[in-house]
Amino acid sequence: MKITRRVKEILANYESDNPGTKGNLARILMEGRLGGTGKMIILPVDQGFEHGPARSFAPNPAGYDPHYHYQMAIDAGLNAYAAPLGPLEAGADTFAGAIPTILKMNSANSLSRQKEGADQAVTSSVQDALRLGCAAIGFTIYPGSDAMYDQYEEIRELSAEAKSYGIPTVLWSYPRGGNVTKEGELAVDIIAYAAHMAALLGAHIIKVKLPNDYLENAEAKKVYLERQIATGTLPERVRHVMQSCFNGRRIVVFSGGAHKGEDAIFDDARAIRDGGGNGSIIGRNSFQRSREDALVLLDRLVKIYLGKE
Amino acid sequence: MKITRRVKEILANYESDNPGTKGNLARILMEGRLGGTGKMIILPVDQGFEHGPARSFAPNPAGYDPHYHYQMAIDAGLNAYAAPLGPLEAGADTFAGAIPTILKMNSANSLSRQKEGADQAVTSSVQDALRLGCAAIGFTIYPGSDAMYDQYEEIRELSAEAKSYGIPTVLWSYPRGGNVTKEGELAVDIIAYAAHMAALLGAHIIKVKLPNDYLENAEAKKVYLERQIATGTLPERVRHVMQSCFNGRRIVVFSGGAHKGEDAIFDDARAIRDGGGNGSIIGRNSFQRSREDALVLLDRLVKIYLGKE
Amino acid sequence: MKITRRVKEILANYESDNPGTKGNLARILMEGRLGGTGKMIILPVDQGFEHGPARSFAPNPAGYDPHYHYQMAIDAGLNAYAAPLGPLEAGADTFAGAIPTILKMNSANSLSRQKEGADQAVTSSVQDALRLGCAAIGFTIYPGSDAMYDQYEEIRELSAEAKSYGIPTVLWSYPRGGNVTKEGELAVDIIAYAAHMAALLGAHIIKVKLPNDYLENAEAKKVYLERQIATGTLPERVRHVMQSCFNGRRIVVFSGGAHKGEDAIFDDARAIRDGGGNGSIIGRNSFQRSREDALVLLDRLVKIYLGKE
Amino acid sequence: MKITRRVKEILANYESDNPGTKGNLARILMEGRLGGTGKMIILPVDQGFEHGPARSFAPNPAGYDPHYHYQMAIDAGLNAYAAPLGPLEAGADTFAGAIPTILKMNSANSLSRQKEGADQAVTSSVQDALRLGCAAIGFTIYPGSDAMYDQYEEIRELSAEAKSYGIPTVLWSYPRGGNVTKEGELAVDIIAYAAHMAALLGAHIIKVKLPNDYLENAEAKKVYLERQIATGTLPERVRHVMQSCFNGRRIVVFSGGAHKGEDAIFDDARAIRDGGGNGSIIGRNSFQRSREDALVLLDRLVKIYLGKE
Amino acid sequence: MKITRRVKEILANYESDNPGTKGNLARILMEGRLGGTGKMIILPVDQGFEHGPARSFAPNPAGYDPHYHYQMAIDAGLNAYAAPLGPLEAGADTFAGAIPTILKMNSANSLSRQKEGADQAVTSSVQDALRLGCAAIGFTIYPGSDAMYDQYEEIRELSAEAKSYGIPTVLWSYPRGGNVTKEGELAVDIIAYAAHMAALLGAHIIKVKLPNDYLENAEAKKVYLERQIATGTLPERVRHVMQSCFNGRRIVVFSGGAHKGEDAIFDDARAIRDGGGNGSIIGRNSFQRSREDALVLLDRLVKIYLGKE
């Protein structure tokens, strides 16, 4: 597999990583229809933990079967499929070697009465990632929440162990709780901050939500206005998040959140592309559509990242 | 022992498991009068921890002797007998090789002042399961409770250890505590969610209570109504739970709860069968009857699963 | 990466392996110009240990540089590159993700006065394979030699450790020493025996030399003659070796030994193909030619395995 | 590298430390334009955790890139560069051996609603410091805060581990919380107390803020007045802090806090020098200026410590 | 410390190493009068183990004191000082940070009745190297000897441990025993082979004796003659050894063996320089002279490597 110049440039930013870790990043970056471009689309299916099966899969019941998602990621030419232990185990043999997988190691849970952003269980291990042939581990942090510090210490240990075995880490960084208001969860200053902290923690791939133009923190707001940091358009905000991740030295992918209309999804992707982001992580917006609709949607997303739309 | 086509199909769903783990699943699936059908009846006797001996065994004092339950499971042609460390140790030699056993590793305790759903002690080890020749380990989780995350992390470790030794895991998944109301504990959306989380955690066999048609969670309810998910009859609800366990890729058995009338028990079993469930786990309803009555009752249950009643 | 039907069939033979190990086998089987065909060509460069640098690389001094071999394997579209620790370390970063690598963990050494087939040092670890991102470990055994039993125990441990991390094992099986005469080292009964023992030891990929039609062992010879085992032609002998490796359930690749003429190499490859072998492992015959000549030679080998010549 | 007499005197104060730890102190003390003088300037860049990326780097956007800071520390001839895991990883290879680095292992976080001085996550390990070639670890304590005792126990363990590997500890000691009023955070009695506790905890290098002449604690105040402890001028206060750190047996560096005017910075440095302090740790005041301005500023600071201004 | 372009080029060859290991290589390469040139002179003092104190130090009794050698390495502007545990411990505090040290972990011993090339004791640990602040570990292998395989396995483990802590490995590779004749110990084919094996084992710095033009191995000789490998002059032989170490991707230093005349030593150094070698490791020829003579000699050696003589 000839690694493209663009992918080599990206890998070169991971200076302290061993070749095994870079090799797994390369597996993800070279996979699928965006392989070699430095762009990526990841299919994450971990909503079962947070929302339960019906809210996740009833809109498209084929999704109750974990094989469906493996096959969708392959057929749509995506870069990777992320899921918790159980679903990966359920298809790991049938799809061995067929698509890079990301073992999602913790997840929120809406049955808990603990307030939003509370700590989560770590439901699998780095050893699981190895025996299942995963290309990365995934982990969620909630910057701001009371669980934040515990989560930071958990990911420090898991990430260090994973790095020693040649496995990179994908961090889902969702600000919530603490001083973060509900509105602030999507504020551009807060999202940039959350992305930056994921980078500080040593993440290889950072996943945040697309920010809006709200500025939450008063101190930060002053700086944004004074320095005239451009955050008026979505591409500008994406660019600012990329800058906040070591000036583009880390891969950042964006999610669009809840199921929404196609045009909004395409607009988001163009903004990510134009702002220099690395791509999309798109779960409910693909697997809650019918397979046919999802394939059409993902095909257009791929084309957008290829610069064809 | 010729493994039947049906059992082979079931084993094939456990893709990432080593042959030792599949072999133990096969031992359970091929045992007794339902051996080879993909259906199973398990005799669980762990009420001593939760309710004490008199509440458990006074109705049928023969049950004070652990040998009684081993012998009952064998004589009734059941698939497995599940119990905590002590009772298994008390009969493991006499009944070595005679019936697959499941080592129940944690249990609730009504002496504790901790509120329902609090964490439980892990009272035995995977090493115990090996030296006692058990075919599986069993573990209870309480989705929703404050102890939930600790329990998830406990079962992650125990299950990973057990899998490495070729031992499958049976998860008792009982929603309670947290955002789950008393009524919600049997709500179909909550039971399906609890079963789904057991699957996400990597369980091989999932044990839940039979759900009623109540819908607890407002967000979920909306989806059930919108998508017209059929949950009006018990078979429909069983079918929905099976779907929620990786579209039937995991074995699910159902319990009926407290001692009740025979007709209700038989109706439950027919519903489990008709909804595609894998069988019953039936404790108090068998061992709190006299041996004769219990054998008659279990004989009819077997016949129901064989499609003869 | 859509895994081909042929590769899926091959992977299905590795029944007890975890998905990680199958995934790495898939990486090798899907790589390069033979990717997906079930055939493979591996470039091994470990002659430095056995013959020293000048005997290995003077015929084509570009080969003194480990990068040369990585690049050759990539440019020729081969399936994998095998080498000891030092050379893999010297290029692992530049070529991260670009070509599956096999960490050759032991090697003979011609400075030793110990008789041929004596034990070898294990010069790297499974942890090295992980941090370098290797797709497999490689190990040489000398069936017949006094070191044989030690080697079998070494590979038992290394292979078990590697399997637990999702890394398959390639066994170089060279009969020598003990009751094996110099002539017998290539005898068809002995080579088939050596290949079979590698399979018995749990190897995923077996590497032997192409056998001639000599029959070494008197007892064995009787059976070959009695049963009229076809070993008269090279394809027949390849077929017999494949049969000896669990009737084709294990991947077997063949080497041609010392540098020789091109026609002989092509004839060998056609025989391997026609006998149902999985491919060639070709070291000196490629890297001791000039890069241009080697690329031409490897191109023809690829075409032979593709059935085009 | 001929260690100067002055540096040897300083090293001699670290009586119980192994030569590895002293060697790393020497690396820092001998580096850059102040190398050998016993004075030092350290560039710390960990504000991203506490203030987020925009507040930290928008004033000089080049600073979003971790390489910028490595290069600045080298070009300005500083003694060391301190940062959390992520930024060090992002440049550790490019700048291997080029500048001593300090791995900042914990950091505050302004998204948290926990009151100031609450505990912080430990976001890296001593093993990280070793693989990244760091010359020291850095850690923040909040004397006075509720988290104080936990922090003391954390640094006890980290520091003991680091010392065993030859790595010294830099303690950032910031009094806050508990009985410390907002005004008291800079009071000379409190700062001296905080510095002293860092020394008591076994720190090799102590970092405090420059104190003002306020006296916070009533009991202490009495002593200061009775004993006529000179704290009227900044040099006197620096001298008092040095005295509080084992009468000058420990290295103490001072920070100036938020971005401020150049003259104030130079006055501070002269006071540190004249009071016998070991130097400055200067973050925002350098990296929030343009590179040109920062180099001019740092050049003058160096000259001040060299006694030339 | 601005790393020179030449040193950066050398470090870039150590692709799979972590920044800590590269940083320690940089410390050695940037030290002393040759710092930054890519050339190096190392002072090794481990003859005490092999020849006893009188044979080692009587010619210049100042050398009985380990401080003498530390000071000599510093005063002469060398790159590093290598010694066993005891001597390093005896001066490590006095000279902390003053000169990179190499912990020589095994050594021959002439009291043993075991024949030459027998195994050696490992007399210190990687943990010792850390607590003493060493920049590298050193280890001797005897390619050819009966102890060879044990030595290879020892260095595999020590080197892997050291690499994980950021410490590089220097391998002394002395062919002897086995098929190597006394004359062959300096034969160019054998020395090149021994150097190559050190590289295969993952050494960072390789130390061999300067070879003569004898060709020992019949098979190798044929290749040298056929391919007209230039080995007639010492620079040609040095060049051939460098080529044998991954075409110059590994640092190689040469020793001259027993005490000899100054002119011979200077001729050797010019040959090493002209052949592209990285430098000299010079023990007895320096410490068995008086301090004055040794300083004059080392001064001229430095000048030779600087191209001034």
TrEMBL record, chains A, B, C, D, E:
<feature type="active site" description="Schiff-base intermediate with dihydroxyacetone-P">
    <location>
        <position position="207"/>
    </location>
</feature>
<dbReference type="InterPro" id="IPR041720">
    <property type="entry name" value="FbaB-like"/>
</dbReference>
<dbReference type="Pfam" id="PF01791">
    <property type="entry name" value="DeoC"/>
</dbReference>
<dbReference type="InterPro" id="IPR050456">
    <property type="entry name" value="DeoC/FbaB_aldolase"/>
</dbReference>
<keyword id="KW-0456">Lyase</keyword>
<dbReference type="InterPro" id="IPR013785">
    <property type="entry name" value="Aldolase_TIM"/>
</dbReference>
<dbReference type="GO" id="GO:0006096">
    <property type="term" value="P:glycolytic process"/>
</dbReference>
<keyword id="KW-0704">Schiff base</keyword>
<protein>
    <recommendedName>
        <fullName>fructose-bisphosphate aldolase</fullName>
        <ecNumber>4.1.2.13</ecNumber>
    </recommendedName>
</protein>
<comment type="similarity">
    <text>Belongs to the DeoC/FbaB aldolase family. FbaB subfamily.</text>
</comment>
<feature type="active site" description="Proton donor">
    <location>
        <position position="174"/>
    </location>
</feature>
<dbReference type="InterPro" id="IPR002915">
    <property type="entry name" value="DeoC/FbaB/LacD_aldolase"/>
</dbReference>
<dbReference type="GO" id="GO:0004332">
    <property type="term" value="F:fructose-bisphosphate aldolase activity"/>
</dbReference>
